[in-house]
What we know:
The protein has 468 residues and is α+β, with helices and mostly antiparallel strands. Strands 8, 9, 10, 12 and 14 form a 5-stranded antiparallel β-sheet that branches.
Amino acid sequence: MAIKSHTAPDEFRDHISTIDEHGKRVWVYPKKPKGKLYDYRKWVSYGLLTLLFIGPFIKINGLPLLMLNIVERKFVIFGILFWPQDFFILVLAFLAMVVFIILFTVIYGRLFCGWVCPQTIFLEMVFRRIEYLIEGDYTKQRALNKMPWNTEKILKKSSKTAIFLLISFLISNLFLAYIIGIDELKKIIAEGPINHLAGFGSLVAFTGVFYWVFAYFREQVCTIVCPYGRLQGVMLDKKSLTVAYDYGRGEPRGKLRKGQERTDGDCIDCHQCVQVCPTGIDIRNGAQQLECINCTACIDACNDIMRMIDKPEGLIRYDSEEAIAEGRQWKLFTPRVMGYSAVLMLLLVALTTLLLTRDDAQATILRTPGQLYQKTEQGTVKNLYNISVINKTNTNMPLTLKLHNTDGTIQMVGSELVLPAQGKADGVFFAEIPQNQLTGMNAEIEIGVYHDDELITTQDTKFLAPAK
Ligand code: SF4
Ligand code: SF4
């Protein structure tokens, strides 16, 4: 790859590194990374993978930690059940998340991509490492791909494919567990594919997609598919934290020659940073390149070289474009970062409050259509109502109803109202109010819904009465 100086025109931004001028894919063979940051990333990924795999088994009050059942429109987040009726909370949560992501990215750049994103973790920390184990480092992989089919190639390729397929199948199960819940998934496995053709079909389809993504499509997900990746251009600015090459210190780059006094910059043009890059770019072309997922592999590679040539580490480092240009270190605690972080905290607090103060049940009470009112001999007026309540918890709840802002009684028609766990209950009742309590023909009344004498939700409705 031709190396451009930082002063060269930004023509490398006109095309992506993994597609050639004929539109054909350029396969990336990244060198196996090693170094301090790579080791930290490994530990972070072990933690996140453990969380991801045990997530479906964790239950809070009998509900999963996370379940996004789009088919049945049932969502559980941190053990809190959301119904379509909670749509506004989900929309608010989504908006808060979008603002959070934007502000986080403006400050910390693509930290998420390099350290937390499941695509990066699965590709770099699972699939790629298995590939290194079976096929060897990048030079051996390239040679293997070029060699004709022989026993060695067949063995290596088939064992890699089998392991990739197996892991893809595991991820596919995991993915489905987050959609339909672990109990439903266990049922599909226990009762066999014949009884659950749709569920089993989804497992096979997801396995195929994951295999294709991690075996072939790879870094293209980040470069051309991921919306978060595509939006980096508008979210980042020159103050954002990014993986950057310190061209002030590195340029003019030049090979290290024995016995010659060095007048060039610290970059010895060894290409180690380019060789480890999983997206096939040269970080020295400039910070904030579309393809860069901030994986830190080039930082580790360059630090290795700097130690070897007895220069300070950090020629490639986490920094901002502005700090590099001004020859100073990126500062975390600037007024701008503190302001943005305060907004992020406010958003998190607002969202948490919204979730924690949400009612356990939601009631809809409407006067029964076609019914007026009934006057009784005891001087009261009766109205007939339909009630529909949904349960947002995992507990069965026998319910009682009480009038809140007026005297009077409520009598259920038929059986008592019992709200099943995660379910819905419908009922019919009379509200009976002394006529002297009623001020108009269309009074506003408030009905409280109680479980074990504890108010779980209230609902306003109209009460019809005769004119005085
Ligand atoms: S340029 Fe560096 S940080 Fe960016 S993707 Fe390549 S190796 Fe990772
Ligand atoms: S690894 Fe460091 S020294 Fe080597 S080419 Fe990259 S920036 Fe220059």
